[in-house]
Amino acid sequence: MELDQTLTSRERINSQLREVLDEATDKWGVKVVRVEIQKIEPPRDITDSMSRQMKAEREKRAAILEAEGLKQSAILKAEGAKLAVVLAAEGQKQSAILYAEGQAEAMKRVADAEKYKTEVVYQAIHNGKPTNDLIAIKYLETLEKVADGQATKIFLPMEMTGMAGAVGVMAELVKADKSDTKK
């Protein structure tokens, strides 16, 4: 039996010692009923060694507990940082979605307004029953605005030749009117 066990197992030692003494004294007719170890005193160097061992064991447990605490702290901090990054990313995603939805709604409203404007202008033109001369003038004004742009090439529709002829006739009529008014 080791020394550590002797210090913690007095009851077991007592029963084993009683059995041994009972066997030894049985031939004399003596029966040992009870044996009790009062105190076990190991030598001083063993006591010092045991104290150092217990101190080292306590320090070891304290170091392990501290390391486990630091580990748990680091894990919780990392999980918190991870959660913060995930939540920030989700927030940015939601913000981008809402921004895109807002942009889409704004574009839809602008398109609806343009459509309405075009319909109103179209209706007004048709209600006003414009003449071909007026249409030709508006066509030329629009063509002038297109030509003022940054484009280096302008494509004209095939019907432009007919329009140019109508404009030429109009120009002749305007000249004739001016000459008639001068007379």
How would you describe what is shown here?
There is one protein chain. This protein is mainly α. Among the domains are: 65-129; 131-146 and 157-183, no CATH class. The chain contains five helices and no strands. The chain has helices at residues 3-8, 10-26, 44-128, 132-147, 160-182. α4 crosses α5 (160-182). The longest helix has 85 residues, at 44-128. The radius of gyration is 55 Å and the shape is rod-shaped.
Shape: rod-shaped
Q: Which class best fits the helix and strand makeup?
A: mainly alpha
* Chain oligomer state: single chain
Percentage of residues assigned to helices: over 70%
Biggest sheet record? none
How far from one another are the termini? Answer: 147 Å
Radius of gyration: 55 Å
Provide a count of the helices. Answer: 5
What letter string, H or E per element, gives the SSE order? HHHHH
What is the average per-residue confidence, as pLDDT, rounded to a whole number?
A: 83
What is the number of strand segments?
0
Q: Which percent range describes the beta-strand content? A: under 5%
Task: Extract low-pLDDT stretches.
Answer: none
